[in-house]
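User: Please fill in residues for this 439-position structure.
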């Protein structure tokens, strides 16, 4: 069964179809209430989640109670009355956090994660917990791609991407250690954003790799993502203006370029050509041979740290861990020596220094978000080979929908910005989004 949510729920027919900025404007005018918006999202969940299975935990009455309180409140934060989904490795006070694992069937945190507290303080409504892969690793949950239930939504932020794509919630939090925000957002045809490493607080988020884990977010357009980013960094909202000069874009073919399907590569090339035709400056500087070993560097750091961060689970609940997690990441991490780990950290710092120099006269890198259209089958969430490099380099990334492929599934492109220049990346993404929409 295929379903294109973009056509199945026109915005005119339901508040759930509104963008965040549209909903906030309607609430400001008095033509929409938070209760109506939350009820519309919950109705959409009721209609669709039997097919999509994006949610690990929902408390409908609590969400509606939060919405009614928002409608009575005189305080108007940036997300006043807007429902948000939260990946189920992030603590929400009073909601079960299960990590998609039988190890934690009854864990109800007494405190919010830092990011969740900031969303509450901005007036956001915590709708529920979205499905994650097991401890944000490789063992999938039950979530299906809303465009085609036979296909993976990607991972590990599976439920967050699927719920946003299916109009069940307008915004959701995810996390990324390899490609866990950008890839599922790409597969599901929405906007995904991973910030410069360290920009978002990770307090209250289950740690996998302290050197790589990054909180991220899912939205349906760049402006909505920008708004949630502002809340998560705790600054005043200053919408990024469109760039006043043509962008300097580097079209990047990383070492694994040939691993991507030809149709995906071709679509990225078409987007690059379209942007050049629009007057932007396109170049194709190659990455040096030093980058050929980046995947080993990433896996060494991630696996070494994961084996130690999951010490309790592997010691006390080893029989409840999947083979993909225990025999894969944990066992591999146990066999990595301290010397190998330190060497990998040093190599990573060298690559970060180089990418800073590589981008000195570049506004954004344009590259692939995924290696393919979302694959058929739910046993695997797809390769992160076109995401993990940028996670390792600590650069900010945004994935944008870029049409549909031969199988009718979303295509996507990824924009990579300079480290600590996320605002400039958003400005570029707004312009690129405008250029490639419906092309």
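Assistant: Residues filled in for all 439 positions:
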């Amino acid at each position: 069964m295929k379903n294109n949510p973009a056509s199945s729920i026109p915005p005119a027919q339901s508040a759930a179809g509104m963008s965040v900025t549209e909903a906030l404007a309607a609430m400001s005018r008095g033509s929409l209430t938070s209760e109506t918006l939350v009820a519309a999202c919950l109705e959409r969940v009721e209609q669709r989640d039997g097919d999509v299975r994006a949610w690990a935990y929902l408390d409908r009455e609590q969400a509606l109670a939060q919405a009614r309180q928002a409608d009575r409140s005189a305080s108007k934060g940036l997300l006043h009355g807007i429902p948000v989904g939260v990946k189920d490795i992030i603590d929400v006070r009073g909601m079960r956090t299960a990590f998609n694992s039988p190890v934690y069937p009854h864990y109800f945190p007494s405190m919010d994660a830092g990011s969740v507290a900031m969303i509450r303080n901005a007036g956001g409504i915590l709708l529920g917990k979205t499905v994650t892969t097991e401890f944000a690793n490789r063992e999938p949950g039950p979530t299906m791609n809303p465009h085609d239930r036979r296909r993976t939504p990607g991972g590990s932020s599976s439920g967050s991407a699927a719920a946003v794509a299916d109009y069940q919630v307008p915004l959701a939090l995810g996390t990324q250690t390899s490609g866990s925000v950008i890839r599922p957002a790409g597969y599901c045809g929405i906007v995904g954003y991973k910030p410069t490493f360290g920009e978002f607080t990770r307090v209250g988020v289950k740690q996998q790799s302290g050197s790589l884990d990054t909180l991220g977010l899912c939205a349906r357009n760049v402006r909505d993502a920008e708004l949630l980013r502002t809340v998560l960094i705790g600054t005043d909202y200053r919408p990024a203006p469109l760039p006043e000069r043509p962008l300097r874009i580097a079209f990047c073919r990383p070492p694994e370029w040939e691993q991507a399907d030809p149709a995906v590569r071709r679509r990225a090339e078409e987007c690059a050509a379209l942007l050049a035709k629009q007057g932007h400056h396109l170049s194709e500087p190659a990455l040096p041979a030093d980058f050929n070993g980046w995947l080993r560097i990433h896996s060494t750091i991630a696996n070494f740290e994961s084996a130690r961060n999951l010490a309790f689970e592997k010691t006390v609940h080893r029989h409840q861990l999947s083979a993909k997690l225990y025999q894969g990441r944990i066992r591999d991490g146990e066999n990595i020596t301290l010397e190998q780990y330190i060497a990998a950290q040093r190599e990573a710092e060298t690559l970060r220094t180089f990418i800073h120099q590589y981008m000195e006269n570049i506004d954004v890198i344009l590259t692939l978000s995924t290696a393919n259209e979302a694959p058929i089958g739910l046993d695997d969430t797809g390769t992160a080979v076109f995401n993990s490099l940028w996670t390792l380099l600590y650069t900010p990334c945004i994935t944008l929908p870029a049409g549909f492929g031969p199988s009718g599934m979303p295509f996507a492109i990824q924009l990579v910005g300079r480290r600590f220049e996320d605002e400039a990346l958003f400005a570029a993404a707004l312009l690129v989004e405008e250029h490639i929409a419906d092309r």
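For context: Residues 52 and 405 are 21 Å apart (CA to CA).
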